[in-house]
Design a protein that fits this description.
This protein has four helices and seven strands, in the order H-E-E-H-H-E-E-E-E-H-E. The protein is an alpha+beta fold.
Amino acid sequence: MKSPRLSFHSRTRAFTLVEMLIVVTIISLLAALTMGGYTYAMRSSKRRLTTGTFEAIKLALERYNTEFGEYPQPANSNQMVQFPPGLATYDTSGASCLYQALTGDGFDQIKGVVGDAAGGGSGGTSDGKVEGVAELKNKMFVEIPQTIFTRKGTTFMLIDGFGHPFQYLKAAIPAAANGANGNNNTAPTTINTTYDLWSYSEDEQNTTKQSINSLTDPTVSVKWIKNW
């Protein structure tokens, strides 16, 4: 009597094209969700840093106003500099004025400040150091973390959490307040009667827009962190 022979047939099952596409789709979705979550977390972190620095600048500006009887005014305007990433350009005149006015390092970026009214390098330029009686008097920040300022060429400036310069404009003084006769027909350049301070934040499309532009088109400042 012959024993029955059992026959085993093994076959490796391959993925079908449809299954491969499903797997690739799932992996892509997971990667997109992960990257999206990471991008959101990084953007939120940068906005928090910007908001914290923003509030510190406002407090320091009030100390400056108490000390000198006025808010600082940028000596220049439209100092356009390109910042990465992308090709967006930013006006650095306000940020460089804020840096000098609130740290005491230099004075050539502050309109109306001359001579030994503040410290700094030759000609009142910033040298990255705060020293001497004049500079200490002008030091409105108790501490100056490296994360809130940068240097472009020979110019130091305050930056937001995205690495871009803060925007700052001092309100124009009405002609009547200056003792001038007649009506003041000068169009306002700021929204506030003191100063406008803002960060473009993650917005890289409207970096040539000013605060006053948001009055006619509020959509330009939707992403900004601002004091109006």
